[in-house]
Amino acid sequence: MKKFRNLYRVPSARAPFWDYSQEGSYFVTICTKHSQHFFGEIIDHEMHLTELGEKALAEWMLTPEIRPDMHITLGAFVVMPNHVHGIIEIGANAYNQKPSPSTDAMLRVSATHSENATYSAHKPPLGRFAPQSKNLASILRGYKSAVTQYARINKIPFNWHVRYHDHIIRTDVAYQRIRD
User: Does the pLDDT of residue 160 top 80, yes or no?
Assistant: First the structure.
């Protein structure tokens, strides 16, 4: 991997073989910056949410409503003092359906011969940088942004860790184990 500005490497945490816009189930963990306890505390084995913890929960629950075109289903979700865990399922939708070979070929031909060509249905090869919309990254970016905006409006000191962790759930057994 090449160095960024000849200084350091920042490898992607995403699986290079996977298209995160495709239909599938994902287990995600999003942490607060420096693992600070912004969302509440555990007292007698029970989570007591702060105002911001309540907002983190509410925003997660709004995700399918905000993005109805992605056919999102939420699985188990929990807010902890300094992070959230959740299962999110992206359903079949207009953004993750592969064009037929004839349609794809027509797009490539028209794109090479027309200045007014539209590239919206053509996806770049996996492992390449591309606009991050209508995929897992865009969902989590919107979620983190909504919680951060609420904190700023209400003058609550808060920051997320820059990255997030994801696990692609591939089997029913794995789904059940993660859910439990």
Answer: yes
Higher pLDDT, residue 117 or 82: 82
Domain membership flag for residue 145: no
pTM: 0.75
Predicted confidence at residue 95, as pLDDT, reads 80
Distance CA 53, CA 150 (A): 11
- Let me know if 30 is exposed, middle or buried by CB neighbors in 10 A (0-12, 13-18, 19+): buried
**Does residue 47 fall inside a structural domain?**
yes
Amino acid at residue number 138: S
**Beta strands in the chain, from DSSP E residues, in sequence order:** 24-31, 40-43, 46-49, 72-79, 83-90, 165-169
Q: At 80, which CATH number? A: 3.30.70
| Structural domain boundaries, residue 105 | 24-114+153-179
Beta-sheet strands, E only, within 113-157: none
